[in-house]
Each structure stands twice: as structure tokens, then as C-alpha cells.
Design goal:
Blueprint lengths: L1 H21 L4 E11 L2 E10 L12 E6 L4 E7 L1 E3 L13 E8 L8 E8 L6 E7 L3 E8 L31 E6 L2 E9 L5 E4 L3 E4 L5 H15 L6 E7 L4 E6 L5 E4 L6 H7 L10 E7 L5 E7 H6 L14 E4 L3 E8 L5 E6 L4 H7 L12 E4 L5 E4 L1 H5 L13 E4 L5
Parallel strand pairs: 1-5, 15-19, 20-24
Antiparallel strand pairs: 1-2, 2-9, 3-4, 4-7, 6-7, 8-9, 10-11, 10-14, 12-13, 15-16, 17-18, 17-19, 20-21, 22-23, 22-24
């Protein structure tokens, strides 16, 4: 009987060992780290197995799911549970707006964990991948700037067909003149209706929106030749351009709506709007209508375009485009012998005298000759404000993040 008990015990131990070896190793997420480098974001998930195992753990089953409407990317991990008590802090301006980690209940026989990443919309601009290591996982995210679709071009437009000089396309509000040389009395001027059509006697109603002048001439010739005139000759002239326009707003000297004739790009649009009001430029935004009639936003790096001559940023404009150049802002810190120490915000360019005036001016016993500016790179600049006030030296331009200290005179 004792021998039988020992045998049964060994059988149970062997069976439990085999069962444990076949059961997937459960792992816990113990910590989360967010690292940013340029346009790339790495989310590191530190793992710890729940039980020891001699061999290396196998790769975790996972799945990515996208919710484009909410701009949420969900990573579902099998055989993993979360023990994260506190998420790290990061700047949402990088495009990662929120992280949510949830382990589903019940956690039997294995655990499933969802990691929801809320990203700056649209979700289509993000590339993502999962890298698995022995003791951690890395979610790689990278925002790739999208390019707007090119303006529509007609076939047989010569240089326009290659994208150099897109021809003007008719639209609602345009006033056109139509001449039929075989019928001098037929000459007429007509404005294109809001639905994009015109009405001609005896042809009837024709949809012309989106057509070039040459395309409309060919269509009118075909209709007249079919029913009324043998070998007609038709000429179409645009008397008023109204529909094909673009808009420039923001940090430009002359914002407004401009006529889209010929080859217009971001650079020519900025020039037509009088140029930038400040040399502090960064990112501009181009809004373009999609097939659903909704505006989509695209980023343009003005620094690369204007300072480095990168023509890949010089996008060709399309009708109804809106080019927004954000007004550059600057934030500095003023403390010491001023009446209202604290943060001073304003538009670039900002100067030292402006920041001091915004801080309420000098307090009693302020040392005008010992003002110091600590720049974000750690460099310290000593300024004699008295020389600036007397016109001996020019005012000092400030950078975003500068710290201004006004000492107190001991006399």
C-alpha cells in the first residue's frame, strides 16, 4: 500500500510538471517608460514573469486594433496582466495624448491586457510596430507627415499635364462668354449656377464645374455638331474669375482670399499675402477639401522650406485651399526687482524692454546695469538696460523660455 501511494505521488508530480510546462507563462507589466526622439515615440513596457522557467519565454500573442473615429490605437496582449500603479509624465504635444492599461476580468485561465493609446488625429498619420524582448516590450510609434493629393489635371494640357501649370477650372460664380462663329447672334454671357451648371438655348442645361475652357469648348462643339451645325467653331472666355480661389490667414502681412490662376504654391501664396510678419516661423497648416467635401489638415515645415530650400515642402495649391500660418508666441520668466514678477507671454519677436514693461517695470532700488538673461541652453547674458534706454545700445531680442533676472542695488 505504501509503494502504491509513492507511485501515485510520483505520477501526480510528473503530471503537474508536464501541465505547468505546457501552460503559457503569465507575465506582468510592472513599469511603463515613454521615450521621445524627433518624430518617433517609444513606449517601453517592463515585464516580469509570474513563475520561473528554465527556457526562454515564448513570444506573446498580440493584436493591434484601430479606432479612427476616436484616434485610438489598442494593443491587446495575451498571457499578460498589468500591475502598473502610476504612468509616467510626458508632454502631450508630442502627439501621444493618453495611455490607458486595462486587464480584463476574470483573469482565468490566462490574462488579457488592453493598452489603449490616444494619438493626435488623424490616426492614419501614425506608423506603429511592436518589438518583443525577453524582459520588456517596445511599442514603436512614428508620425509621418501626410502629403495632400495633387490638384486635378486634364489630359492634353501640355506642360500642365506634367504638373507645371494647372489650368483654371470653371466653378460656381464664374462668368463666361460663349461665341459660336457660325452664329454671330449666339454670343452670350452666362454665370455658372451654384450647382455648377449653365443653361444655353437651344442646347439646354450643361454641367460645367470642374472643366477647363478647352474641355467646355470641345463639349459645346460636339453637341452643336450632333444636332444643329456642321463643323461648328466655339470659343469660351472667362470674364470674371470667382470660384477658384485660395485663402491665406495668420501671421502674414496681407491675409485674405486670392485668385488661383496658373501654378500657385505655398511660397507664391506667402509672397502674394505680403510675406510673413515675423522671422520666427515653424509649422504652417494647409487645409484641403477631400472627396467627401470635408477639410483635411496637412503640415508644412516652413523652416525647411524657407531656410533650407527644401522644395518638397512647397505644395502646389488647389481650389478652396486654406493656408494657415500660426502666429508665433513666446514665453519668458521675469523675476527679481520688478513690480509684477512672473511669466510674460506675447507674440514674437519680443524684446527685453517689452518683457520688463509687461512685468510692471522696475521696482525701487533695481539695478539697471546688472540685468541678466539666462537662455534655455544655459548661457547667461549680462545687459545694461540703462544703455538701451539712453539709445547707446539696441534692445535685446528674447527667445522662448528665457529667464530674466533684475537684481537689487545695494546702494
Amino acid at each position: 500500500m505504501r509503494r502504491l501511494t509513492v507511485i501515485v505521488g510520483w505520477i501526480w508530480i510528473i503530471g503537474a510538471t508536464v501541465w505547468a510546462a505546457q501552460k503559457p507563462v503569465q507575465r506582468e507589466i510592472r513599469n511603463v517608460i515613454v521615450a521621445v526622439q524627433g518624430d518617433a515615440i517609444d513606449i517601453l513596457l517592463q515585464l516580469q514573469p509570474l513563475r520561473k522557467r528554465s527556457s526562454a519565454p515564448s513570444a506573446l500573442p498580440y493584436e493591434f486594433q484601430k479606432d479612427t473615429e476616436r484616434s485610438v490605437l489598442t494593443l491587446t496582449l495575451q498571457n499578460v496582466r498589468s500591475r502598473v500603479k502610476r504612468l509616467p509624465r510626458w508632454n502631450p504635444a508630442i502627439g501621444l495624448e493618453n495611455i490607458e492599461i486595462t486587464t480584463r476580468n476574470p483573469c482565468q485561465p490566462t490574462c488579457t491586457t488592453d493598452i489603449r493609446l490616444t494619438l493626435a488625429p488623424p490616426l492614419e498619420q501614425w506608423q506603429y510596430a511592436l518589438e518583443q524582448k525577453t524582459m520588456h516590450l517596445i511599442v514603436h510609434l512614428k508620425r509621418v507627415r501626410r502629403r495632400p493629393p495633387p490638384p486635378p489635371l486634364s489630359e492634353g494640357e501640355g506642360w500642365a499635364g506634367r504638373g507645371f501649370f494647372p489650368e483654371y477650372r470653371l466653378g460656381p460664380g464664374d462668368l463666361i462668354e460663349i461665341q459660336v462663329f457660325e452664329l454671330p447672334d449666339f454670343t452670350t454671357s452666362v454665370r455658372i449656377a451654384p450647382d455648377g451648371s449653365i443653361s444655353l438655348v437651344p442646347i439646354g442645361r450643361i454641367f460645367v464645374a470642374g472643366k477647363t475652357v478647352q474641355e467646355l469648348e470641345r463639349e459645346l462643339q460636339a453637341r452643336l455638331a450632333r444636332d444643329y451645325i456642321q463643323d461648328p467653331h466655339v470659343a469660351v472666355n472667362i470674364k470674371e474669375f470667382q470660384s477658384q480661389r485660395y485663402t491665406v490667414i495668420g501671421a502674414v502681412k496681407n491675409p485674405g482670399s486670392f485668385l488661383l490662376l496658373g501654378h500657385k504654391t505655398v511660397v507664391t501664396a506667402l509672397a502674394e499675402a505680403g510675406g510673413l510678419i515675423s522671422h520666427t516661423v515653424g509649422t504652417a497648416y494647409l487645409y484641403r477639401l477631400n472627396e467627401k467635401g470635408q477639410y483635411e489638415r496637412y503640415e508644412i515645415d516652413l523652416r525647411r522650406l524657407l531656410y533650407q530650400g527644401d522644395l518638397s515642402e512647397d505644395i502646389v495649391l488647389a481650389p478652396q485651399d486654406i493656408l494657415l500660418v500660426p502666429v508665433a508666441s513666446i514665453q519668458v520668466y521675469v523675476y527679481g526687482a520688478v513690480r509684477n514678477p512672473g511669466i510674460v507671454e506675447g507674440q514674437a519677436p519680443m524684446t527685453l524692454l517689452y518683457a520688463l514693461a509687461a512685468a510692471g517695470g522696475f521696482a525701487e532700488r533695481a539695478s539697471l546695469g546688472g540685468v541678466r538673461i539666462v537662455h534655455p541652453d544655459g548661457k547667461v547674458e549680462k545687459i545694461d538696460v540703462g544703455d538701451i534706454l539712453e539709445g547707446k545700445k539696441p534692445d535685446v531680442p528674447l527667445r522662448n523660455g528665457d529667464i530674466i533676472y533684475v537684481p537689487t542695488s545695494i546702494f
